[in-house]
């Protein structure tokens, strides 16, 4: 009937092997638990190291912003590499990049070079562009029914990463006495190496001969689809607003008189809230639908901003960060599931890369602007700016759902 039916009923889906999909989802969850700890380490320490090394204190959050810029810049090269060499080789190369970035960041700290440290976090960010595509890789061999759960399985690895990252900071930050925090980045490099071992066990997804030879529709035709626009916008808003608020929150807490330890704990609770719901998000999508779960995530992000505007106690900050994490989980996993409806098997690499480039390019802009806006307008201004993007995304989702309901069967 419609293009949607032709995509979801593509021949390769008839041969989908959920046994392979389940195995790969477990492998990718393990890799996410290791590699996904890298952003937590950079976010926890990037601003502190930046304050110590930067000649201009306004540049203190630059290392964290460069992490997100590296993530955006790496999405398309990562997709091209995996399309040519396969997921397993691509992910092993990505882990090698993460190892190199961690070593360079540690060397930058040890040599008191802000430039080298920033270059290291930029490279770590490009490693993240490989990690972020784990959620799509989990769906390569999955049936339509299992896709949301496969994404959720992988994202549960992020829950473990939310513990591994901060604990790595705690246990390794003083490993090199003459260079505080350098040990934590060596720890990040070691985790990237372990991730390389994990992804070496990945199995190739079965792909039909027709799909492997076809190139699919032009990318411009795919991204102009209303359903792709809605999926990309909801993912972009969910991730960008989460980064926007998360980057500003630790500095805002310290500026309001709270301790560095309280800020770090707030980030840890935030990360746990980001990935904890992944155990059941896929089931929620199966029961209530992709659009409804995505909308719930966006609404939670808006509620987090309301809490942020209502007070500056530790409880207010922590609750804001927890709701922000929950909203990101529902919004981002739901949007990812929406994207999988937009392409045929032979088109997945370029569409996934385009989607992630748009999302993480926006995330980089959000991260760069967050610190400046906080300095200029304070924590309240950060929270007020959450509402317009959420409103736009919810209107688009509602329009899509109404259009789908009105479509003939």
From TrEMBL:
Pfam families: MFS_1. Keywords: Membrane, Transmembrane, Transmembrane helix. Residues 227-409 form the Major facilitator superfamily (MFS) profile domain. The chain crosses the membrane at residues 25-48, 60-82, 89-107, 113-130, 150-172, 178-202, 228-254, 260-280, 292-312, 318-339, 351-369, 381-399. The keyword Methyltransferase does not apply. GO terms for molecular function: transmembrane transporter activity. This is MFS transporter. It comes from Microvirga aerilata.
């Amino acid at each position: 009937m419609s293009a949607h039916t032709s995509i979801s009923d593509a021949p390769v889906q008839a041969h989908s092997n959920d046994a392979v999909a389940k195995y790969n989802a477990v492998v990718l969850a393990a890799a996410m638990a290791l590699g996904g700890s890298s952003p937590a380490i950079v976010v926890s320490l990037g601003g502190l190291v930046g304050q110590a090394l930067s000649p201009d204190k306004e540049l203190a959050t630059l290392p964290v912003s460069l992490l997100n810029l590296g993530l955006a810049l790496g999405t398309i090269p990562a997709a091209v590499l995996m399309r040519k060499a396969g997921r397993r080789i691509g992910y092993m190369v990505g882990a090698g990049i993460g190892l190199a970035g961690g070593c360079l960041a540690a060397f930058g700290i040890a040599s008191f070079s802000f430039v080298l440290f920033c270059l290291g976090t930029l490279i770590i960010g490009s490693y993240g562009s490989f990690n972020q595509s784990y959620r799509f890789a989990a769906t390569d061999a999955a049936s339509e029914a299992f896709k949301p759960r496969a994404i959720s399985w992988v994202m549960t690895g992020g829950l473990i990463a939310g513990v591994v990252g901060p604990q790595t900071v705690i246990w390794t930050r003083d490993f090199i006495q003459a260079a505080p925090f350098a040990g934590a980045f060596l720890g990040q490099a070691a985790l990237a190496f372990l991730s390389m071992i994990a992804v070496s066990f990945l199995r190739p997804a079965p792909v039909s001969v027709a799909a492997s030879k076809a190139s699919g529709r032009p990318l411009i035709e795919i991204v102009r689809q209303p359903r792709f626009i809605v999926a990309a916008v909801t993912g972009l808003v969910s991730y960008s607003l989460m980064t926007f608020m998360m980057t500003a929150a630790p500095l805002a807490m310290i500026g309001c008189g709270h301790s560095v330890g309280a800020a770090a704990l707030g980030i840890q609770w935030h990360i746990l809230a980001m990935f904890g719901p992944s155990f059941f998000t896929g089931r929620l999508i199966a029961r209530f639908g992709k659009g409804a779960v995505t909308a719930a995530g966006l609404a939670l992000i808006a509620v987090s901003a309301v809490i942020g505007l209502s007070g500056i106690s530790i409880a207010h900050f922590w609750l804001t960060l927890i709701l922000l994490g929950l909203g990101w989980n529902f919004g981002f996993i739901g949007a990812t599931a929406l994207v999988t409806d937009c392409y045929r098997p032979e088109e997945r690499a370029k569409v996934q890369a385009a989607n992630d480039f748009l999302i993480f390019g926006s995330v980089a802009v959000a991260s760069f602007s967050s610190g400046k806006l906080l300095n200029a307008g304070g924590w309240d201004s950060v929270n007020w700016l959450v509402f317009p993007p959420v409103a736009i995304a919810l209107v688009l989702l509602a329009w899509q759902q109404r259009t789908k309901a009105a479509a003939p069967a």
